[in-house]
Design a protein that fits this description.
This protein has about 525 residues and is α+β, with helices and mostly antiparallel strands. It contains 16 helices and 15 strands. The strands form 4 sheets. Strands 3-2-11-12-8-7 form a 6-stranded mixed sheet, with no helix packed on it.
């Protein structure tokens, strides 16, 4: 009995710590430029340190026993415990746990970044399975599964190089006057492929171990060379990364050192590929234009689902900081409706779009080709659309409950000026139970998150990250079961109209859904509280 039990116990991938991750970066030599300077060591570069810190936190988080249920997952195919950020979802519960993990990570870091690898791996897994089933092959699955094991066992950070530079947006890839506007295959041989072109908005590019190169749009037959998906080391010869700094490290700011974004931030890079060789074992597909839409659709759905959790974590920071600012100002939202109402509105927005993520998890469906689980596309896109368009309201509400002090403070040097410090601490204290320095610190924290360069960055990345609002609206309309609603009314009006597959208004239908075990099955798994997270 014990031998059988031991045989069934999963093995565990060796997970890196945050310091292990930093040290691992020193084993790579990517060609990186930031602010016109070539970077000698990504791990030791001050302008990238907030991004490295954010990823390092994800590594330390995954090693904490109290959060193991959400931070880790068991990959059934290999019976191996791996990082949640590198896991292929096998159930609705996996998607719920991923949501909780991403939210917890972003409560600390603002944007944990590493979850993009999870979204890309799940999307690629679905795409290669579709290609194999269509061609009667197992080749694409085999390459991907070998690479997945490689990434999981080494606990890698993977950057997503999906968004092409695109050039003239009115032209298709093969029509571009500059062919490098899209990444494409320029040569094939017995050993592999050679790719050239440019990818933009590669999150965390400089401090990733490897890049997942993926097409950014549906392709036609003439664009077959652009339908390429592969993995490359970030320091592969021919790759150049031109990056923005991560966060605001070391800046001399009007209101002092950025309390949050000096520690955590996110770099985004343009990645240029100049005849980069990729061996066949790292090519997931090349030229399979007929199936290029599968990856763009599946990745977008997974990623929008993750973005919901990421911005919920950011919303938690605003809610907590807003409550602290009310307290520091000597005001109680319980007694002041003009504060309580905007606080409730901020809570409603945050938990409203997060609830869409929960619904997308609960209504997840098993992909018929890969066997992995896909979040419901309607709820995923509604949640992402809500956060994308309401991020500006979240900032406004944080400003409303905080007062104008967050942008009207004297500079922090005055806190140490013998001529002004004592009078300022007296004049700017409000609630006698909250010391001056704590009130001011909270105000500067909210300024950093919402009314600074970094605050503007959070707004834009929330709006466009994972696709534009127009793309989300298109997916909601394309997937929503409008036909079921139309036929409901037809039936109530007793029109006796039969279903017509060619009728535009009724082409999408979906019956009601229920738990596969029945809603009252004894012992059905439910979400349970984790131990309180410790700092």
């Amino acid at each position: 009995m014990n031998a059988l039990h031991e045989a069934a116990m999963p093995s565990r991938a060796e997970l890196m710590s945050g310091d292990d991750y930093r040290e691992s970066l020193r084993g790579y030599r990517p060609r990186v430029y930031v602010d016109g300077r070539e970077i000698e060591s990504v791990a030791d570069e001050p302008s990238l340190r907030p991004g490295v810190n954010a990823l390092a936190y994800t590594y330390d988080f995954a090693r904490r026993a109290e959060v193991a249920p959400i931070a880790l997952a068991t990959q059934s195919r290999r019976n191996r415990v791996v990082s949640r950020m590198l896991h292929i979802n096998e159930s609705s519960g996996d998607l719920l746990n991923k949501l909780e993990a991403v939210r917890a990570l972003c409560q600390e870091t603002g944007c944990a970044q590493r979850y993009l690898a999870h979204d890309a791996l799940n999307g690629i897994g679905q795409a290669v399975a579709r290609i194999d089933d269509a061609t009667g092959s197992t080749e694409h699955r085999a390459r991907f599964e070998a690479y997945l094991a490689h990434a999981q066992d080494r606990d890698l950070s993977l950057g997503v190089a999906m968004t092409d530079a695109k050039g003239d947006r009115s032209l298709k890839p093969h029509q571009q006057p500059n062919p490098d506007a899209y990444v494409r295959v320029v040569e094939r041989n017995a050993r592999g492929i050679v790719i050239s072109g440019a990818k933009a908005i590669v999150t965390g590019g400089p401090y990733m171990h490897e890049l997942l190169v993926m097409p950014s749009r549906n392709m036609g037959a003439e664009d077959a060379d652009f339908a390429v998906c592969c993995a490359v080391r970030v320091d592969e010869p021919g790759i150049t990364l031109v990056s923005r700094p991560a966060g605001r490290p070391g800046e001399k700011l009007e209101h002092g050192d950025a309390l949050f974004s000096r520690k955590y931030g996110q770099a985004t890079a343009v990645v240029m590929f100049d005849r980069v060789f990729v061996p066949w074992e790292r090519v997931f597909y090349a030229g399979d234009w007929e199936h290029s839409h599968v990856l763009t659709y599946s990745y977008a759905t997974h990623h929008r689902h993750s973005c919901i959790a990421a911005r919920a974590g950011f919303g938690d920071l605003l809610i907590g900081a807003g409550a602290l600012m009310c307290e520091a100002n000597g005001l109680d939202p319980d007694a002041k409706a003009n504060l309580r109402d905007p606080m409730v509105e901020l809570i409603k927005i945050t938990e409203g779009f997060y609830a869409c993520g929960v619904a997308a998890s609960v209504y997840a469906a098993r992909d018929e080709h890969s066997g992995s689980f896909m979040p419901d596309p309607v709820f995923s896109n509604i949640g992402k659309l809500l956060l994308a368009t309401q991020i500006y309201d979240m900032h406004r509400l944080a400003h409303e409950v905080s007062g104008g002090l967050i942008v009207a403070l004297p500079g922090p040097d005055e806190d140490h000026n013998p001529a002004t410090a004592a009078r300022l601490s007296e004049a700017l204290q409000a609630n006698p139970a909250v010391p001056y320095d704590r009130r001011i610190q909270t105000a500067r924290f909210i300024e950093d998150l919402t009314a600074s360069y970094q605050g503007g960055w959070y707004s834009v990345i929330s709006l466009h990250g994972g696709g534009s609002p127009a793309a989300m609206k298109q997916e909601i309309w394309r997937n929503y079961p409008l036909g079921s609603k139309v036929e409901l009314v037809e039936r109530l009006l007793e029109r006796g109209v039969l279903h017509d597959e060619a009728r535009a208004a009724t082409k999408n239908r979906q019956p009601g859904r229920c738990c596969d075990m029945g809603c009252s099955a004894p012992g059905q798994p439910i979400m349970v509280p984790l131990p309180a997270l410790k700092r």
